[in-house]
Design a protein that fits this description.
seven-stranded mixed β-sheet; globular; 382 residues
């Protein structure tokens, strides 16, 4: 199989992740629930992972990072924990349903919502973002990069607007954590939500949320925390405030191994390689009959993702053909990004998404491009 669906989940994991998970499965207890070696070992793994994530994102301290099951849980935690009836929130058509659906749910309860449109290339207008600010506006909720087009959001511009109006900035880093450098302090990010199983190369079932100091979020879940057990409310101190229940220590251990690999290899090198492979793919598919490529033409402003269509062919049909004939795994359909598809005019057709990992070979990329060309030429002959 030629795997070109890394934007959904990384199929490749470094050996460090596997080794860390096996060690944890064989010896880790429940972190924070006791004083014996098994639980202390689990606690050390959790803290070291928290520390490495804080270093990666330039957080003020490890305690500002809380673990979640995935980016979706992190975003739900932020959105339901910060907003309520009467608040106004600004987001964009670039967002994933993990942002949109919680906001729609709150909208039914009295939240006011503005959604900033995008042009035919999926680029948002930042002047419109500022024009949408009202007296009761509380926050911007934006993706760092579209999971469909790969377009990178200009966080510096959004931060400038947010700071000018004293608004919160909540960032969905599902497509950028482990790929692009992220400095939450320099970027003015109040809340950063991320998954562990994409660019961070960790196992599924891992993710997290960064919350800046002095910002409190109502917890999405409440329960056991290992501390202050006689109090009726969830402990106010981070990270326990947002970490009710047993943590996925085995998954967190795998994430720790992946972070060790990323630190050793360098995310800049990984991103450089992935962009090279995407550029090669885009060069190889030039001139394919009926090809429509979505996203910005400025390849410096997109993560290694390419969404396209061939004529009027259903994206699911193209995806199935590629896999059945060449073993090429891509993603088709709506990509949980309905508003972006409406902006691109692909609501009914969907799109075929190719997303690139640094472990792909140039030969595999050329095979994928040639397969797409073969499909398009066959369709033209019918």
């Amino acid at each position: 199989m030629i795997y070109l669906d890394s934007a959904a989940t990384s199929l490749w994991h470094p050996k460090e992740a596997e080794e860390r998970m096996i060690q944890a499965l064989r010896g880790c207890g429940n972190a924070g629930r006791g004083a014996h070696d098994a639980t202390l070992d689990a606690g050390r793994i959790v803290f070291e992972t928290r520390m490495r994530l804080a270093e990666l994102f330039h957080a003020e301290s490890p305690e500002r990072i809380a673990f979640t099951c995935n980016d979706t849980e992190a975003l739900n935690t932020a959105i339901f924990g910060l907003f309520g009836p009467g608040d106004h929130v600004i987001t964009t058509v670039c967002e994933h349903n993990s942002v949109l659906r919680p906001l729609y749910a709150l909208e039914k309860q009295g939240l006011e919502l503005s959604v900033i449109p995008a042009d035919v290339s999926g680029r948002i207008n930042y002047d419109q973002m500022e024009a949408a600010v009202r007296k009761n506006t509380k926050a911007f909720v934006v993706t760092h990069a579209s999971n469909l087009t790969g377009n990178i959001t200009d966080l510096a511009r959004v931060c400038e607007i947010a700071e000018h109006h004293s608004l919160l900035l909540i960032v969905d880093a599902a497509q950028t954590a482990g790929i692009l450098p992220i400095d939450v302090q320099k970027s003015g990010i109040d809340v950063l939500c991320f998954s562990g199983h994409k660019g961070l190369l960790g196992p599924q079932g891992t993710g997290g949320i960064y919350v800046r100091p002095k910002l409190s979020i109502r917890p999405l879940k409440m329960g056991g925390s290992g501390i202050r057990s006689y109090e009726k409310e969830q402990p106010a101190a981070m990270p326990e405030h947002l970490e009710a229940g047993t943590l996925n220590v085995h998954g967190i251990a795998g994430l720790l191994g992946a972070l060790e690999y990323l630190e050793k290899t360098g995310i800049e090198m990984i991103y450089k390689r992935e962009r090279e492979l995407m550029h090669l793919f885009l060069e190889e598919i030039q001139g394919i009959p009926g090809l429509t490529l979505y996203g910005t033409d400025d390849l410096q402003q997109r993560v290694p993702t390419a969404a396209l269509n061939i004529g009027s062919c259903d994206s699911g049909y193209v995806s199935d053909w590629l896999y059945e004939n060449y073993g090429i795994a891509v993603r088709s359909g709506a990509h949980c990004a309905p508003l972006m598809h409406e902006a691109l005019g692909t609501r009914e057709q969907g799109a075929v998404r190719f997303s690139f990992s640094h472990v792909l070979t140039e030969e595999e990329v050329r095979i994928a491009a040639q397969a797409l060309r073969e499909f398009a030429e066959e369709e033209m002959q019918q």
